[in-house]
Every structure is written in C-alpha cells, then in structure tokens.
Design goal:
mainly alpha; single chain
Length: 202
C-alpha cells in the first residue's frame, strides 16, 4: 500500500494524471439489457466463445494455484474445489447481467491467504470498499490511468508466487520447455490464459 501511495503521489506531481474532482454520484447500471438475437446476426458468436475459453483457462489456472496453497487436490477435498469454481461462475453471470466485465479470481489472493485471509472476511471487506469506490470514480479513473500505480504490489506478489517454479522438473525437457514458454508468455502478453494456452499447445 505504501508503494502504491508513493507511486500515485509521484505520478500526480509529475503530471502523469490530473484529478478534476474526487466524488461523484454513480450512474444506475443497465440491468439485463442485452439482445441475444443480435449476437448471431452480427457474427459475435465466435468472439463470445473465444472470450469464454480465455476466462475458463484464466480462472482454472488461478484457482488451481490457490487450491495448491491449501493442499486441496482432485482426490481429496474435491467439494471445496467445486465450490471455488461455482462461486466464480456465479459472480461472472451476475456481473454480466449488470453490464460488468467478467469476474475473475486474482492470483494475488494467494499472498492474502498466507497472511490468514481464509474465512471470507477479507473478501467481504474488499467487496465493501469496491462498492464505496463507485462514489470516488473520478479519482479512481485518474489514478488507474497510470499503469505503474500497481507495479510495486505486483513485483512483491510475483516474488512470492515464483516459489511454484521449484516444483517443475527442469531436467525433463517435455515438462521444462512448456513451463518456460508459459512463464515467458504471461508477462509479455499480460495474460495468464495466453501463457497457459501456449504451454498446453507446446
């Protein structure tokens, strides 16, 4: 948080973004405002399928890493694995009805779980703060326009997550090479799904 605050203040004084106002009343979302017939008439079907596959791969990769942190496997604790996938699916469905982008689990949650965020209270706190941030949308939009704002946190989280690389059998080329390409592709494309797709293909 301190790194993000310093980055934000530095970016403001360097003129990387401007804050015209801080508080504003949110606009009412358009609920269930979509036309299914338009999806097929405008040839968007394949686009939707492609985005769906990306979301599934992205969520599956993230949730798998989070499950490993809790020693949850397919053989034992399968119920918990299913609950995490179902909750992500329901969040995506409900968000879409309100015109939101697909909900997705974040790999940064792994660090939160190690610090004790396992009961759901941390997630509820984040949800409440996110809801309150709607009233500070001008400030949020101005700050989020600077990509480096979240850089300090991502560097720290990435260093903790790199521990999983030690589980790879680097002496086995069939396992090491796809893993290497996946690790290389994810930061270059800013997409976990793209990295996993490259790893699966290779």
């Amino acid at each position: 948080m301190l790194g993000m605050l310093i980055t934000g203040v530095t970016g403001y004084f360097l003129g990387l973004f401007e804050v015209e106002k801080i508080v504003s009343l949110p606009e009412l979302p358009a609920i269930i405002d979509f036309d299914l017939s338009g999806v097929f008439s405008r040839s968007l079907f394949f686009v939707i399928v492609s985005v769906l596959l990306i979301i599934i791969i992205d969520a599956a990769g993230t949730l798998r890493l989070l499950d490993e942190d809790n020693n949850i496997t397919r053989n034992e604790g399968t119920y918990k694995v299913n609950v995490s996938y179902v909750s992500d699916s329901v969040a995506t469905l409900v968000g879409a009805l309100f015109g939101s982008t697909p909900a997705a689990p974040y790999i940064e949650s792994k660090k939160g779980k190690r610090l004790g965020a396992r009961s759901g209270l941390a997630a509820l706190t984040v949800a409440v703060l996110l809801l309150l941030s709607v009233f500070f949308l001008p400030l949020v939009e101005a700050v989020s326009s600077v990509a480096a704002f979240t850089a300090p946190v991502l560097f720290i989280v990435g260093s903790f997550l790199f521990k999983g690389a030690f589980r790879i059998n680097w002496h086995d080329f069939s396992e090491a090479f796809p893993a290497f390409l996946a690790m290389l592709t994810i930061p270059l494309t800013s997409s976990i799904a793209m990295g996993m797709a490259i790893g699966f293909v290779v």
